[in-house]
Amino acid sequence: MSKQKKIRTGKGIHRREFIKNSAIVGTGLMLPFGVPTLLRAAPRKIKIGSIQPVTGPLAVIGQGQRKANIMAAKQINAAGGIKSLGGAHLELLLGDSESKPEVGRQEADRLIKEGAVALQGPFQSGTAMAIATLAEQRQVPFVMDVAALDAITQKGYHYSFRVFITARGLVGGAINFLKQVVDMKGVAPKTAVVTNTADPFGKGMSGGFLKGLEKSGMPIKILERIQYPLGIQDLSGEVAKIKSLKPDLIFPVSRPGDSVILTRELYKQRVPLMGIYCPGSPGWYEPHVVKDLDKLILYVLVNVPWINPLSTVYQHANAAFKKEFNQTLDTNSAYAYTGTLVVADALERAGSVQADDIVAALKQTNFKDHPVLGGPIQFAENGDNKGASTGLLQIQPDPVPEKRVRVVLPKNFAQSQEIVFPWPQLWER
Fold it and tell me: Which of these CATH numbers, 3.90.1150.10, 3.30.160.150, 3.40.50.2300, 3.40.50.720, describes 3-165+308-363?
């Protein structure tokens, strides 16, 4: 057995004898990447494929995720690169899924052919499913920074790993927090309408939530489930139907575009509600949505995987993101940032760019210093993150739009102790 094999497997000479912490230049963020070893010739650059929906209906989210991937790679390179591989730098190969699963798969295939030793992305669950299938065929490690559909990791794949929470985990968090809000406020909604985009995530998430709500025993009657295409431009008919049903709540599984259209139409048609409670989807916390809807989005409650506002890692990364891109590092971009850190951590511990070595390292991941809510990132046998969890957010009044999105539960992470429920009607604000 060669010396470099001994280092990688932990037999003979141990890697930990060569490792020390390195600070990210300019941010103070600490990452567990080791010092260079002279025991092997290292590639000058390690190519990583980043596939995000930077055009199409999810472009705003995808662009933020791409920026976060890029910033994380730059910081890792500035801190000395992958030191177990002689300081090799990460080179991101960028792909655009165009918010279409088939295009995402084509882009992933292109990046693999261009030399990507690992893939990450891609926000959409349908796109993640398509890439996971390809990654298995090509035997290329795939780290999903954001994608929640349970089925992705239920096919026995060996090369796919998910940093994000599963749809099942989202549902569990949504029902748990809903019970807490009802108990705290002493006001029990009796009826609701579920709305969702008719893409794989929208269907899967809303379907799982409906099943979970039924099993929970909460006495909330679902009057209707209303589905519509991703990228829809008019929801007047759907909102008219909601108004006729007279629900207490709306449970939306949405995207930024349709959440804005839905809210404005609810205001226009003066639909009375106790509130909007999102069981888990984007569209309610993105900075541009919060700013554009202004008072209309106040008091929406959202169960979602979220940044850890108390984390120094988040605080440093957010400061760097604002400085470089003039944007807040939100939940989607924070998970994209984390995904790149996880890939780099696995490469560091693998000391190799071989797929099986990277996969073996990913299976042993115990990544604690990250910027999102939850415990250490540790992958289960099927590739799901055992440390993933959610928080409950509420959009609350503040002169500064970016400070309006606040964690209200769980209490140990809460930024606000007050939860407004029921809400003042949209036209009364």
Answer: 3.40.50.2300
